[in-house]
Amino acid sequence: MRPSKRAPDEMRKVTLERGVARYAEGSCLVRFGETHVFCTASLEDRAPGWLRGQGRGWVTAEYSMLPRATAERTRREVNAGKPSGRTQEIQRLIGRSLRAVIDLPALGERQISIDCDVLQADGGTRTAAITGAWVALHDCIAWMRARSIINTHPLKDHVAAVSCGVVQGAPVLDLDYAEDSTAETDANFVLTGSGGIVEVQGTAEGKPFSDEELLELLRLARVGANGLVALQKQAVGQ
């Protein structure tokens, strides 16, 4: 029995609340159980310097965790002078995941910056961030279209992310912290609404995992991602 009493293929309760930031062009407060992430999308009417003159835009992301998002206070990374390696890796993952489903030339020479701030952490912060960031990005694009900044819809697909792992010998979906901290295998899957794989991150903490376990984790991830995409569609009225 899982600590949360969930079935092996059962997600935590997930909610996607849109329009939670007054000033951002798009925003979403995403909750995966007790993991809460505040996502905003901000439009900048210029491309990054290295892209200027190329006729296409960019989507980038920043990720951070509030000091008391966890059981003990963590120091703000701004006071350390630079983001940690973990933070840099997660924000690059979020950016890659979103760019996989957007037509960058259709944005024109503009940048959309996604900010994902973890308000409370209980495992799966990066997967929650990607799932909520898609909603914020969608609403930013809708804001642009409503003002005739762009005339097409550059989002080509949905993208969502979920964690899976092997805990006490059993493959399970959507690990909370109690499971994540003891898992023999921990993996994150980023999948599109049409079933494409954007990224897989998998690590054996104990013994190496088998091909069969990897395929079972992928199967579970598809179950979770399909449910998350359905919630995204419901949230944005598709």
Brief summary of the model shown:
With 238 residues, this protein is α+β, with helices and mostly antiparallel strands. The protein has helices at residues 77-80, 85-99, 125-146, 177-180, 211-236; strands at 14-18, 26-32, 35-44, 58-65, 111-120, 159-167, 170-173, 185-192, 197-204. It has one domain: 2-Layer Sandwich (Ribosomal Protein S5, domain 2).
What does this structure look like?
The structure is a single chain. The longest helix is centred in the C-terminal third of the chain and has 26 residues, at 211-236. Strands 1-2-3-5-4 form a five-stranded mixed beta sheet. The chain is built from five helices and nine strands; from the N terminus they run ββββααβαββαββα. It has one domain: Ribosomal Protein S5, domain 2, CATH 3.30.230. Helix 2 (85-99) packs across helix 3 (125-146) and helix 3 (125-146) packs parallel to helix 5 (211-236). The chain has helices spanning 77-80, 85-99, 125-146, 177-180, 211-236; strands spanning 14-18, 26-32, 35-44, 58-65, 111-120, 159-167, 170-173, 185-192, 197-204. Keywords: Nucleotidyltransferase, RNA-binding, rRNA processing, Transferase, tRNA processing, tRNA-binding. Its EC number is 2.7.7.56.
The count of β-strands is: 9
The class by helix and strand makeup works out as alpha+beta
CATH class: Alpha Beta
Uncertain stretches of 5 or more adjacent residues: none
* Radius of gyration, whole Å: 18 Å
Q: What share of residues is helical?
A: 25-40%
Distance between the termini: 36 Å
The CATH topology is Ribosomal Protein S5, domain 2
Keywords: Nucleotidyltransferase, RNA-binding, rRNA processing, Transferase, tRNA processing, tRNA-binding
GO molecular function, one term: tRNA binding
Enzyme class: transferase
Catalytic activity: tRNA(n+1) + phosphate = tRNA(n) + a ribonucleoside 5'-diphosphate
